[in-house]
Amino acid sequence: RAKSAGGNRFEFADPEADARAITRHGLTTALPAALDRGEFFIEYQPLVHLGDGTVRGAEALVRWLHPQHGVLGPDRFIPLAEHTGLIVPLGRWVLEKAVRQARAWQEKHEQTGPLRINVNLSPCQLTHPGLVSDTVDILEGAGLEPDALCLEVTESALIGADDDLLKPLRRLAEMGVDIALDDFGTGYSNLANLRRLPVRILKLDRSFTRGMQQYPADPVDLKIVEGIVSLAHSLDLAVTVEGVETSAQAEQLRILGCDTAQGWYYARPGPPERLHELALVDATG
Ligand code: C2E
Ligand code: MG
Ligand code: MG
Ligand code: MG
Description:
Bound molecules: ligand C2E, magnesium ion
Organism: Streptomyces yaanensis
Distance between the termini: 63 Å
Shape: globular
Protein name: Bifunctional diguanylate cyclase/phosphodiesterase
Structural class: alpha/beta
Helix content: 40-55%
Order of helices and strands: EEHEEEHHEHHEHHEEHHEHEH
Radius of gyration: 21 Å
Oligomer: single chain
Strand order of the largest sheet: 3-4-6-7-8-9-10-11
Largest sheet: 8 strands, mixed, barrel
Strand content: 15-25%
Number of helices: 11
């Protein structure tokens, strides 16, 4: 599409930018119906104990099976859902579905041990007044113990959080729900601030794990991770690492004292049956 901009000059619109804007707009308007039509689904990625290599649970990661565009990752539509407020019902749907799935894993094979489920919360859900009561209802409805649930909140969502924002998280933590600080290390938060937060787990961002991909590992990243782990442990927080892609990374992070790991080295996000198989292999030998 070219637009005449007077006399002898032509200006061309950027067709790619146009396509992006249309898609963005199209996706945004399609979101509510997509939820009604059941176009969202969840993949689960195992969380592995670094000490003994057993699967301890999984993180629920939402996807959208769009009728025209195929499978879309959360980075494509979560920001749009946050913008329109659809994230509240969508987030509630993810929570309910994932909690029911965790209960189903537990019922099907007791020998896998109490598998835990991690669910991401967006900042909009934190300020929504129904968060605590919805979570209680969902846990009770599924028959899942609160301590089998971990809610992941990004570090940036809690930077400068006042007491009103922290109140629902404190209530959930008192009930036994774990709160994890997701993408930790990217948000420039004041480390002393950690004491104020009802958080039990730090999820170290993938950018730190990356420095451990080569051998020998990046010495600065080693020092940083070492420092974060020792600070976390001194505050009674557990450390989970994201984005572990190689055995060298896993070994290095285990030596550094990280507790739990997640990444392609163990498994990509996949359907719920897969997690079950992985957990069972661990449990039986
Ligand atoms: P996150 O919570 O930090 O999730 C980890 C992301 O890293 C996932 O991307 C996962 O697929 C990816 N990942 C895992 N292991 C590896 C690895 O070894 N290498 C690499 N390169 N990547 C790895 P995904 O599924 O695209 O999700 C992106 C983000 O979308 C998530 O980041 C989370 O912030 C958000 N998200 C996902 N599901 C939900 C949801 O139900 N609600 C909300 N509010 N946000 C969600
Ligand atoms: Mg997460
Ligand atoms: Mg993360
Ligand atoms: Mg991340």
